[in-house]
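Thanks for the sequence, V.! I ran UDP-glucose 4-epimerase right away. Repeating your input here for the record:
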Amino acid sequence: MEERKKILVTGGAGYIGSHAVVELYQAGFEPVIVDNFVNSQESALDGVAAILEKKIACYRLDCADYNAFRQVFEQEKNIEGVIHFAAYKAVGESVTEPLKYYHNNVGSLVVLLQLMEEYRIPNLVFSSSCTVYGIPDQLPVTEATPVKKAASPYGNTKQICEDILSDLAKSGTGSISTIALRYFNPVGAHISARIGELPLGVPNNLVPFITQTAAGIREKLTVFGNDYDTPDGSNIRDYVHVVDLAKAHVKALDRLMSGANQPLEIYNIGTGQGSSVLEVIETFERVTGQKLNYIIGNRREGDVPEIYASVTKATEELGFKTELSLEDALKSAWNWQCQLQKNQLTA
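Predicted structure:
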């Protein structure tokens, strides 16, 4: 049997990271996780092990700590690629604690790139965000849509990281090839309900807030504004199932390893369709049979009225296409929430 190619996954115990680890292993790779568990919980590793019927190697450390991180490269021989998820991602917190975000998000990428150069690891998939587009002038956004001044330090860290990768690509060393994936809004959970989104404290994202409200953990859900220039007045986003998103990373690695890529390539990863907040609520109620207690509140500072992706480039060059629907995502998110409740009751 062909030996599995070893892929380092930073932030591999997080929401997207854990799903990517599952897809990588199922596609024939050998993932190795690096995570400091600041934004994740060790139970995710148990979930991954249950799905794969195998324990995945995991190093508990901070990727911005050069000496600690270097030990992984010393120990794990023949790493052929890295997927870099590890980052802080709460927009509001980034406004009040910008230095924390620059140190972690930008610092960890610089350390990673230095180590990849030192240990001659040629392939990187970088976790970027549609945040870099700001409030776009035209929809859908393509990869050529201008990147605007970021609305938050979090968004700015993603822009700076992309600039660093661009400068490295232009430097002509040719030692690292990168594919940056600009995610739209990941939602849902694995069909097994063994892994899913596990926000620490009050969720920042819509879907876990919906599921927690339906489960009675939150008293009510607030829709931030219904007076936007959209068909029903609520914000529109491109919600992509996390399992589809995880598969995009496998496609990106395949492309890097085939050598068909340029030194830096950027792809939007979304469905190509927008759904409004009120549509998401209606869909959730329909597919789960749960009535939601929600109210209309004021607009939230920094929210983009409407954004969704053009996915033509990802389809044509990466061969990536989403397979799961918003209904699938919301059903799986609710199953995951129910599983969490069950585990707490039996714990």
